[in-house]
Amino acid sequence: MRYLLFSVLVIFAIGTFAAPGAFADHDTDEQWGTIYVDKPVLELAYSARDNSEYEKIKIFGTVENPRSAVWVYFTITAPDGKIVQVKAIASDNGNYENFILICCNNIGQYSVYVEWMGHHIGTVTFEVVENLAEITEG
What we know:
Elements: H1 2-18, E1 36-37, E2 41-44, E3 54-62, E4 71-77, E5 83-89, E6 95-103, E7 108-116, E8 119-130
Parallel strand pairs: 2-8
Antiparallel strand pairs: 1-3, 3-6, 4-5, 4-7, 7-8
C-alpha cells in the first residue's frame, strides 16, 4: 500500500513539473480568431431619456477551423455592469457577426468578450456618447 501511494505521488509530480501545460486552461498564445467593432464611438443623436429608438453597432470577425463548431459566444458588459450573453453562428468560411442594440440613452463604455470552442478570441470595447444638438436663436 505504501508503494502504491508513493508511485501515485511520483506520477503526480512528474505530470505537474514535466508537463506544465497539461493542466492549463483554454487561453493560450494560439490565435483562435479575430474580433472587430465597426465603430469605436457610437454617437446617439437624441437625448430624451424616454426615447426608445435603437441604434446598433456591429461586432464581427473570423474563427479558425469553422466546421469544428457552430456557435461563437459573446459576453456583453454594459456601462451599468449588466451582463448579457448571446451567441452567433459562424459561417462555413469562418466569418461571424452580431449586432448590439443600444436603446434609451444607455451611454458609457461597453465591453464585448468573445469565445470560440471554449477559447478566448478577444475583447473589444466601444463608447456610447450623447450628441446633444445645440439650441440656437432664430
